[in-house]
């Protein structure tokens, strides 16, 4: 079998199997803990503005979701933001974008320091986004699907007055779409890129483009995936689409066609990009440098392509 980018997450069949989320604490309005305290008996941390730090990489689509939702809901003052370098080294995500290479709030050089403070035996891949408690220095959660949902549901008292309702009252259609898009698109591009057999790659490729064809048709008569209003699932799809032509099409071999060759998906993605909270959170330089430099089994030369021209997103 071809050498895998992340050996622990590659099955014997060559299929990419993403690791689970190690830290699954919740910051909840229902927490019985007082301000400054740790989680209650049910593992719920108290909602406390100014206490928690959201650690992200601007290159990472899973982290990008939380950046967009935090901005759309107006939670910038309630939850502080730390941005790691897009280039990982052997110790993982680095705070080298900050003065002296340390996060100014947490005092860390590496996000892995917070992981090991929380679980000294942790030997998995350190991932973003992660929410770190500034009081104890412990990781509250790296459960990226739940983080954005909780920003909508548990932090309502701190939303700006005109914040969008990203989660509809009836969640059945939302949850089904989230699951389908995760399996075949959000994680599907990785299942293509990190596959180590031809069979695993082609299966992921077929599922990815099959789902994109379905979404292309879905968007033929609506502005958003659930109809007339923006929802959580639009944000989750956007963070994959905005990276598609820049990295996934070439780097991950998802090359049946480019995003720009899907008329409805391309119009939808540009519409979101040009909306407040979306395009301003996209950093194509960091996106390209992360994928092309850190995935050395896929791109051993580390050469970062010049294109595509990002100005087309403003058209």
TrEMBL record:
Q: Which keywords annotate this record? A: Transferase
Annotated GST C-terminal domain ranges read 167-291
Looking at the record's lineage, which domain of life comes first? Answer: Bacteria
Q: Which Gene3D superfamilies match?
A: 1.20.1050.10, Glutaredoxin
Q: Membrane-crossing residues? A: none
Q: Where is the active site?
A: 60, 190
Coiled-coil features, chain-numbered ranges: none
Provide the protein name: Glutathione transferase
Origin organism is Kribbella flavida (strain DSM 17836 / JCM 10339 / NBRC 14399)
């Amino acid at each position: 079998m071809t050498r895998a980018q992340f050996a622990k997450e590659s099955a014997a069949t060559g299929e990419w199997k993403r690791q689970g989320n190690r830290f699954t604490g919740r910051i909840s309005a229902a927490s019985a803990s007082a301000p400054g305290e740790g989680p209650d008996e049910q593992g719920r941390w108290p909602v406390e503005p100014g206490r928690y730090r959201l650690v992200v990489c601007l290159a990472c689509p899973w982290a990008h979701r939380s950046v967009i939702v935090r901005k759309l809901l107006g939670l910038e003052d309630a939850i502080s933001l730390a941005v790691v370098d897009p280039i990982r080294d052997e110790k993982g995500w680095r705070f080298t974008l900050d003065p002296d290479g340390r996060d100014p709030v947490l005092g860390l050089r590496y996000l892995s320091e917070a992981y090991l403070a929380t679980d000294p035996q942790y030997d998995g891949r350190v991932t973003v986004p992660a929410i770190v408690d500034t009081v104890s220095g412990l990781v509250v959660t790296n459960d990226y699907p739940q983080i954005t949902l909780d920003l909508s549901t548990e932090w309502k008292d701190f939303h700006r007055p005109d914040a969008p309702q990203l989660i509809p009252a009836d969640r059945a259609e939302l949850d089904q779409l989230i699951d389908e898009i995760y399996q075949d698109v959000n994680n599907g591009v990785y299942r293509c890129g990190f596959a180590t057999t031809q069979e695993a790659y082609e299966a992921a490729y077929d599922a990815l483009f099959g789902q994109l064809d379905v979404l292309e048709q879905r968007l033929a008569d609506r502005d958003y995936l659930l109809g007339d209003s923006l929802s959580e699932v639009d944000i989750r799809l956007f963070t994959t689409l905005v990276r598609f032509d820049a990295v996934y099409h070439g780097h991950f071999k998802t090359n049946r066609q480019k995003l720009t060759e899907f008329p409805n998906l391309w119009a939808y993605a540009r519409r979101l990009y040009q909306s407040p909270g979306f395009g301003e959170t996209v950093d194509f330089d960091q996106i390209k440098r992360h994928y092309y430099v850190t995935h050395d089994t896929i791109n051993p030369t580390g050469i970062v392509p010049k294109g595509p021209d990002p100005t087309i997103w403003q058209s």
